[in-house]
Description:
- The chain is mostly helical and about 70 residues long.
- It has helices spanning about 5-10, 20-35, 45-65.
- The radius of gyration is 14 Å and the shape is globular.
- The termini are far apart.
Amino acid sequence: MNDQLYEFLAVHDLDDLPDGAWGQMIMDAVVEWNEENGDNLDAFETWLTYCEQKAERQTENNNLTFEP
Length: 68
């Protein structure tokens, strides 16, 4: 998944929604992405990839160390 698609989906990522609604919101965003960009991404598969990348990015951010 490229950064542009990831960021597009992140805008639709409302963590306070119940899990089912949250997942549907991301999958609906994939459909919107497809329409705007002429892609044919599978909404469910793209949602799974988004979840994996989100977890990876959060882990990377948590592993950053800052020195004063």
